[in-house]
Design brief:
The structure is a single chain. With 276 residues, the chain is of the alpha+beta class. The strands form two sheets. The chain has a five-stranded mixed beta sheet with strand order 1-2-5-4-3. It has a two-stranded antiparallel ribbon with strand order 6-7. The radius of gyration is 19 Å and the shape is globular. The chain contains ten helices and seven strands. About 5% of the residues have low confidence. Strand 6 and strand 7 form a beta hairpin. The termini are far apart.
Length: 276
Amino acid sequence: MTIFDQMLTRYSLDTEDRLRNATREVMQQIVLAGLNRGGFFDVAAFYGGTCLRIFHGLDRFSEDMDFSLLEHNPGFKLDDYFSFIRNEFKLAGRDVDIVKKVKGRKTFIESAFLKEETETYNLSFSTEKKVKIKIEVDTNPPPGFSTEFKLLLLPYSFMTRCYTLPSLFAGKLHALLYRGWKNRVKGRDWYDLEWYVRNGVSPDVQHFYERAKQSGHISEYPSSEQILDLLVNKIRNTDMDAVKADVKPFVKNPEMIKIYSSDFFIQLMGMMFKQN
């Protein structure tokens, strides 16, 4: 049995969704291991929903991997770390292909797609669906975030530099309010919002401000009341059925999200700055 297969045994694989989600999460952990061997976390930090899932026990699966350089570096190339990622997968018993995403416009986000070359896994059942992970690195990060090192034990013991929970929450608020998805709804943002409030995390308002200022959405430091007003307005203009539909494939128990409604999230927001 390969290391990859051993890591998969920690998950329930009795449905196609669960197999796909588990496979993706094992791949994410191996990516982190490869980046660590390459010294990536000397210059960058992990953030976003996948960071929250792997290091803080968020009870939903996550797709993409988001990283931020510690400081602006226009010369950064994610390609420099591809060999470390490929070698880590080879040690785990898998071969992967990494394809750099070519953008049509200039951006500070370095992107790549990592996917299994083999479409079928001979585990508890087979699936023909390809598992793909998008990896993004912000090479011009907004200032004001804080980081910490978190331990991961598989595929070997190593430390990953991550945003702290308040900085993670600030990034989530910015994504929830200003994500450029037009008419699409990313319900996973709302699910994560509930997780932060339930776990007593307060957002780093300074980092939220720096993010929103960099993206051109606000120009003055916001008060807690102003952030709440922005969120309530967002809630009232969000299709909650679309929120639930987006979240459902990533949670073990869909009953948990039946409560989602505008009133639910408005009441939740009233608790956000009363944690401490």
